[in-house]
Amino acid sequence: MTTARQNIHEYLAELDDIPGTRIYTAARARKGYWINQFAMSLMKAENRARFKADERAYLDEWNISEEAKVALMARDYNTLLDLGGNVYFLSKLFSSDGIPFAEAVSTMTDMTWPEYRQMMLDGGRAPQGNRSIKGGY
């Protein structure tokens, strides 16, 4: 008995229809490499100070697209995720801004921070409408 192996790209494409979900794939990692390297640079106090003193000048030192630089300065995390940013690397930016992880994540939703916090305290999002669209969930 033989079983057909599913192509990894086909498998990952199946996950694209989950609302609000971005699967961090190798392709996405390659795309966002410099965004993530920039974010990791913020682990050093001297780099955070330089970034805070002149965000644009610091970003211009990195091989980051203009679209990503604009998104970084706007703290547009959804765009950064689309451009290959990894939320755990981007957390260095949240931290540099003095924003708790959960509060920063709330900006990636259609909820305010207090609404998001309450939703999480109440047990999180309901699964209805937040699973695979094609699966009817």
Highlighted features:
single chain, Protocatechuate 4,5-dioxygenase, Chain A, mainly alpha, 137 residues, 10 helices
Describe the 3D structure.
The chain is an all-alpha fold. It has one domain (13-121): Protocatechuate 4,5-dioxygenase, Chain A, CATH 1.10.700.10. It has helices at 8-14, 26-31, 33-41, 45-53, 55-59, 66-74, 77-82, 87-96, 101-106, 113-121. α3 (33-41) packs parallel to α8 (87-96). It is flat. It starts with 7 loop residues before the first helix and ends in a 16-residue tail after the last helix.
Task: Tell me, briefly, the overall form.
Answer: flat
> What would CATH call the architecture?
Orthogonal Bundle
* CATH superfamily descriptor: Dioxygenase LigAB, LigA subunit
Number of domains: 1
Q: What is the helical fraction, as a range of percent?
A: 55-70%
N-to-C span: 32 Å
Note the total helix count: 10
What is the fold-level CATH name, i.e. the topology?
Answer: Protocatechuate 4,5-dioxygenase, Chain A
The string of secondary-structure elements, in order, is HHHHHHHHHH
Largest sheet: none
Rounded to an integer in angstroms, the radius of gyration calculated over CA atoms is 18 Å
Residue runs with pLDDT of under 50 for 5 or more positions: none
Number of DSSP strand runs? 0
Q: Average pLDDT value?
A: 86
